[in-house]
Amino acid sequence: MKHYSLISNSIKCALLTAAATASSTVFAQEEQIAKKIERVEVTGSRILREGAIAPAPVTVITGDQLVNSGAVNIGEALNNLPALGSTYSMANSGRFIGTAGLNILDLRNMGTDRTLVLVNGKRHVSSSAGSQSVDTNTIPSVWIERVEIITGGASAVYGADAVTGVVNFILKDNIEGMDFSVTRGFADLNSYNNKKATFSYGSNFDNDRGNAAFAIEYSGQDSLNALDHPWTSTSFSNLPNQAQTDENKNSADFPDDILTPNAGYFAINDAGVYALEDPTKYINSFNPDSSARNLYVGNNADLYSCANCDFFNLGQFEEIQPEFERYNVNFKVNYDVTDDLNVYFDAKYVNSQGESIGQPAFFFFDSDNSIKIDNPYLDPSIKARMKEEGVDSIMVNRMMSDLGRRVENNTRETTRFVTGLKGTVFEDWELDTSVVYGQTDLERENGANMILANYFNALDAVEDADGNVVCRSAAAQADGCVPVNIMGFGAPSQQAIDYINTVSVGTSTIKQTVVSGSLANGAIFELPAGYVGVAFGAEYRKEESETKEPDNAEGTFFNALGEDKGSFNVREVFFEASMPILTDLPLIQDLVFDTAVRHADYSTIGDATSWKLGLDWTVNDELRVRVTQSAALRAPNIGEVFGAPSQTFYTVDDPCRAENIANLSNAATRTANCAALGVASDFNSGYDSASLDGLTSGNRDVKGEESTSTTVGIVYQPEFLDNAVLTIDYWEIDLEDAIDTISAQDILDRCVDSTTGINNQYCNLITRDTNSEISLIQNSVLNVAGQKASGVDFELGYDFDALEGSFKTRLVGTYLIERKDFPFQDDPSSYIEYAGTTGEAKWQTNLSVSYVMDNFFSTVETRFLSEVDFYTNVELASNSNPSNQMSYGKYFITDMTVGYNFDSGLGVKVGVDNLFNRKLPYGSRGTSAGSASYDNIGRFGYINLSYSL
């Protein structure tokens, strides 16, 4: 390379700023003031590059910065970066079955399956059955040197799944000496606390030809219930705006609902609620002794909820932080078999345990949950009222809290082995061959799982001839039925609870095998403008996943899940080249063309090809321009192809109900199709006010997704200001044939709104019973959707000496221009715009200022989120003023650490997360996919003690 000024400046900046989040540069080392430039491999390319020149925007965060917070999981720290969504964090990972405790990364909020996670450039076994999602808890934080994040399609270099980008965890090569640390943290406003301990030891052997090391980590945190935190203990409910009239209902000043504190459901509680004298008023409940109690609903209520009344706070069933523990054991060894070749072997074992405690079983307007008039537990006064009203049973809405909250314990065991040979062959070719095998075993234990048949047998209690309370069914009695009293909290006996509940245990096994080899040469031959670099290789990969569901889960309150079993393999070849085109011309100091192509043969979808093109234009010593265009692929994962039908529930409006047809301006097509389905014109059953049964499954015919990514950016390093760098990168990702399920409502609507009649794929997914009511909706993944996202990433870094020490400053941010979701890609005019909504703020920035003076160090970091809307464009199009609470305001949160490293090797660090105790947005608990962007713990202090030898 003929020009060292830009390279040298880049290296100095990267070193002086510790590459906190350097989207313009990646790590390099300057030796003897650029007399020798080390060639390094960077994420996004297999070709070794000189200095700090990266072919595409790469964001870098160091291992030290990852652990520079009170969070004991590195995924929590990464989720704070603007490019990553908070789809799976500690606060919200328990939203789905089997996911409690997972930290899964989601670049650009376009789906976790579209983010490829690598460790040292190699694939890692999944942590979630049927998917390719990697839990960051399986990665040893004590050995992380840095994390490199590249935006946009990188499938041409790394293979499938890199649709939105790659997150590559680079681990330290050689470990020498001993490092020990322990961290303990406590919240200021509640009982939440966490802890972490790490130990690492490594040493060279055989005259420094080899190095061996091992590391042990433990981390854990306690659960935190919403009622145990003053920010989340208040119950909120959207209640009708009593000031709204027919005249002002379309005015923004008179929204439909008012988000009201100290409000919630009165029509259900854990004692039981029923209607009697007035069948529309659920204002009757029970005392603990089963006697009658009237509920006070106040003067601000709708049919089911009220404020400042006898409401039931469902927050008691919400854990805003789960209980979690992780054990991580790692071993690595490498040895120089020759001066140019190194053989290596890595092994790990990770045990992680996450607990999700949810709601108990419940019954809400379920006529099966009724108390008959001859039930001996029924209070005489209530029985008398029933006789007066001429009813022989009462339907009871009830949270079965006294039968136990449903608890899910997930235990994951991950083992992974990597062995390979790397080094220089044929004088100047870089070889890297490896074999990777990984396996994850998941045990999911679901406790307090209600056996519905047992419960209903126990509920139907009578008095026998001897005056004993027994189950009505003789067969149930013979099977050990124990009658249950649900009238009043605490009424069920322990014997009845034991008869009704069971524990269900499901297991999953995920396996991955990867064999790969590559050769690279950064200077295969010289052109007038410089050296041409190439890389090529081949890879074989096999993915396997099998889930076994418990036999006793069927007929319980727990969803009946299908047993997924499947596998696929892929054979790939790839090629990459970097070619200098021009040099030493006016306004063109260097112009380099980059290209890559990858061909894959999948056992599931057949042939697929990905490619990348790029230009790297160095204008002068201060300014550099880079452009990339790429096509990426995501093959369907095992669950999307082989997923067995699993039970789910849908909330929909039956489009064939008379009142729904009457709301249409042109109802002719729907009327005709509903009639063809056998639905009467006056059909208007309100059955769809309750959830309907559904089945979801994979699809053997599903194809791969394809994305096109474009990035255009500049790197500016002014000569008038040493150690300053500015990068600005525009990015755009277009996703086609996105694998997705159709919403249940869309299935129903498209069935009866088809102009070609009812012989369509959507009507085939719907089953109606003899009463014309929908009894089942089937759903499977299809290549029907699309996504488009674009934005601007920017970074400003400036390092300087002052106050007898050195400062490092860095501002990293993203402006999100658009994040469109097309439910049906064949209709580009119909889309959901998520940019600027909860979890996808238009502006996100991280500002870091660190100061070092001798052994003393300190860091202050502030994260900013702009105001976000609750409702998307589609929701607002149908109702422009749904609530008085339409958005979350601007959000700032600041963390701070101070520490001192003694010459003896002892280090002390004290930190405070959320230094100024920034509250959650009004009405939020911070546990949804979007609201998890906001801290729900509050001010959190921790201390870290370390010792290095």
Description:
9% of the residues lie in helices and 46% in strands. It has 949 residues and is mainly beta. The protein has a 22-stranded antiparallel β-barrel. Strands 5-8-9-6-7 form a five-stranded mixed sheet. A four-stranded mixed sheet has the order 38-39-43-42. Strand 44 and strand 45 (805-822) form a beta hairpin. It is globular and about 100 Å long.
In short:
The chain is 9% helix and 46% strand. The protein is built from 13 helices and 53 strands.
Overall shape: it is globular
Rg on CA atoms, Å: 31 Å
Question: Separation of termini?
Answer: 40 Å
Percent of residues in helices comes to under 10%
> What's the count of strands?
53
Q: Which structural class fits the helix and strand makeup?
A: mainly beta
Averaging pLDDT over every residue, what do you get?
A: 91
Tally of alpha and pi helices: 13
